[in-house]
Amino acid sequence: MRKNLFYIVMFLFAAGLTVSTGCKKDKDGEDEEPELTDLEKAKKDYNEVYLGTKAISLSWNGTTAGCNPGDITAKVRENVIKRVNYYRRMVGLPDNVTLNSSQNQKCQEAALYMIANHTITHYPSQGGKCYTAGAKDAAGHGNLAISYGSEELKANHSVNAVSGYIEDPGSNNLAVGHRAWILYPQLSAMGTGSCFNGNDQNWAANCLMWGNNLNGSAQSIDYVAYPPNGYIPSALVFPRWSFQIYGADFTAASVTMTDKDGKNIPVNIIHKSAQQGAPDARIAWEPQGYNFPVGITSDTEFHVTVSGIKNAKNTSYSYTVKVFWTDPANARKPAKKGEYFEIL
Asked: Are 83 and 53 in contact (CB under 8 A)?
């Protein structure tokens, strides 16, 4: 009987030991959470950071009548930079961009100039209403967005403006330059400001200033692609795709794409450039036959090859965009009839 009891105790001890050694312990001896897969990490980042930085009220306290640029809430600015860093992290860039407080003020002045004059321009005129030297500096060294006609569109002038710049829609944005500034590897800080005038056709404006903040330290990265190599939520797969390398020459480059089944996808190349200073040289194209992002209805993959590149580490690069489906309702909403939205 004692012998049987001994064997039972030893069996239970061994079983307990087996269970315990199968769990990872932290330094305090508590069980740690299992390590997430790359897909799980991407979904977590999208849900917690991207969706966690949805547009909130600007609470702008300025006026056009007195040319007072006022200010917006610190939370709005914090969310803007979180979203900038979200996009950078997704493409493999350093995600440590910070806010530049002096440029925040200049951006407020630039946004005020735009709604006061019902215009969008990188070159504010001294004869324009609410002109300041700060407005001129920010408008000339930043991404700009305006809208009017809908109170809902004021959200495009805080965190959603960042997604608008990454999307880079419009016939004047074929070079996707606004995207390239946000995804510039050495970007270290940005200023941002927004204004919204509910008493004047709901005119709203945003400025996201890169200015002289191009001195950050970037990890070694061969290229920047958007959509990126790896996982991306379907709501953020926009009609225009791009590939950029500092110092490269894309003037003779070409792009081929296939779907998850290996079927060829025609592409329309809309921009090619050789390096002429910051931001990076790039090639941009629009895949044909897809209505991004709403045309994606399930998880899928796209295989991309960019060839014929000069002045780069390699003449050809291949990568895979792994799309996981997300509700298209969370994509940046375009202007409806009677509304207007523009990026410059």
From this structure: yes
**DSSP E strands, 223-316:** 224-226, 230-233, 241-245, 254-259, 264-265, 267-272, 281-287, 300-307
Main-chain phi, psi angles of 197, to 5 degrees: -115, 95
Q: CA-CA distance, 296 to 237, in Å (whole number)?
A: 9
State the Cα–Cα distance between residues 50 and 87, nearest whole angstrom.
9
Q: Tell the residue number behind the tokens 């409806």, with chain if given.
A: 336
Distances (CA, A) of 56 to 107, 154, 163: 19, 10, 15
pLDDT single digits (tens) 265-287 = 999 999 999 998 888 899 999 99
If one counts every other C-beta atom within 10 angstroms of the C-beta of residue 303, the result is: 15
Tens digit of pLDDT for each residue in 135-152? 999 999 999 999 888 766
Q: Is the dihedral of CA 262, 268, 271, 272 positive or negative?
A: positive
What is the pTM assigned to this prediction?
0.88
Separation of CA 297 from chain center: 21
CA 205 to chain centre: 18
Bridge partners of 205, per DSSP, are 146, 195
Task: Sort residue 168 into left (φ over 0), alpha (ψ -120 to 50) or beta.
Answer: left
Q: Where are the beta strands (DSSP E) in the chain?
A: 98-99, 142-148, 189-197, 203-209, 224-226, 230-233, 241-245, 254-259, 264-265, 267-272, 281-287, 300-307, 317-324, 340-343
Residue 144 β-bridge partners? 207
